[in-house]
Amino acid sequence: MWAARCARRLWMPENKVEKSRFAMHGFANPARFLRLARWLTPLCLFGGLAMAVVACAWGVFFAPADALQGDTVRIVYLHVPTAWLGMGGWSTIAIASFCEIVWRHPLAGIAARAAALPGAVFTAVCLITGSIWGRPAWGAWWVWDGRLTSMLVLLFLYFGYMALESAARGQAEAGQGQSRMASIFGLVGAVNIPIIHYSVLWWNSLHQPPSITAGKSAMASEFLIPLLIGVVGFSLIFGGVVLARMRAILADAQAEARLRRKAMAAQARARAAAAPNPDDEELW
Amino acid sequence: MAIKAKHQRLVLVGVAVVALIGAALLAIWGLRNQASYFYVPTDILAKPPEADRGVRLGGMVARGSMKTAEDGVTVNFVVTDGKASVPVRFAGIRPALFVEGSGVVAEGRFQNGTFVADNLLAKHDEKYVPREMQHMTAEQARQTVAETQ
């Protein structure tokens, strides 16, 4: 009995007790969020873009070549930020999914949905730049070591999440109830994130261990400073894209609701016009 | 007993996450040998693979061990992990970053105590140093940086 009730609470969108409260903070929060997002979106996007351009230009034209790898190392200014955001994107999905499942926060589901596509794009760019780097540095475009394989799995997880999420949304729009499948998948998929990070430490791999760990860097500051600017810049771009996509999703929902209200009003008017006039009825 | 639904969900999801992490750790523990990309010399010597089985051997190219054979294509060197070392023979195009004292992953077969490689992959470490500073000690590098500023 208890288990069945728990299962229902996990799977069903919201039960009757919560309905009124849900509706309340559902309306209150997006409004506050939208006020904040209106100026935060362009700030993140343009600030991030400027920082990313500075970092890439610094890395390509002004930073020194590496002692061992020469100019090949310059791709690091694209590879590392995109790898960081590929993993950051899924972390966003996982945290947002957790908030959605536990607190039913209406913005959390939207945030998870908004983070999936940019996360997937950054993961793909990371894999592509890594492959281009691997050819001159290792002598192979691709190897099936722990790091590369777990990163490819992350890309496939993104594809799975997006497919699941759009299927669940289609179902909800068809009035077949809301599904928590995508959020649960977002949470389960998060186990891959520590695996990606530790893959180069737990297992022998061709990919080198991390250069930058908490408080330490095996990278000379000539490389490190533009790289960190790039990481911050690309992160701001990611944040800006997520905010913009969240605003678009909210605007979409708002337009949909308005259309539905109009359609209902029109229907009511048509019904009123078609119905016999009560005054006429008096005459009969 | 009235538990708020959200608290119940918090506990349930928390338990699920802990179970998930436990399952993942078990899987990783089970995979700890299979998921490695290569064997180090210690592994190869402790449990030599069959002579016809393709395996990967990884480690550092021992300094002073690289010798090019008379045909000019074949190269002999020693791969070491600090504890054990295995002689390697390879004929073919070497990756640019393949140098003594650097990391290497050799693909091939272990035959009669020698690893016969048919492909070499260079493995570089996580250190990035500008060309001008590579032969300096940390003290010299710091001094150079101080002078240029």
From TrEMBL, chain B:
Give UniProt keywords alphabetically: Cell membrane, Cytochrome c-type biogenesis, Heme, Iron, Membrane, Metal-binding, Signal-anchor, Transmembrane, Transmembrane helix
Which of this chain's residues are annotated to bind heme?
A: 124, 128
- List where in the cell it is found: Cell membrane; Membrane
Membrane topology according to the record: Single-pass type II membrane protein
Q: Cite the ranges annotated as topological domain Extracellular.
A: 31-149
Q: Name one Pfam family in it.
A: CcmE
Q: Cytoplasmic side: which ranges?
A: 1-9
Major location (coarse): membrane
HAMAP family in the record: CcmE
| UniProt family annotation | Belongs to the CcmE/CycJ family.
What PANTHER family is this protein classified in? CYTOCHROME C-TYPE BIOGENESIS PROTEIN CCME HOMOLOG, MITOCHONDRIAL
> What does this protein's UniProt record list under function?
Heme chaperone required for the biogenesis of c-type cytochromes. Transiently binds heme delivered by CcmC and transfers the heme to apo-cytochromes in a process facilitated by CcmF and CcmH.
Q: Please give the name of this protein.
A: Cytochrome c-type biogenesis protein CcmE
Gene name as annotated: ccmE
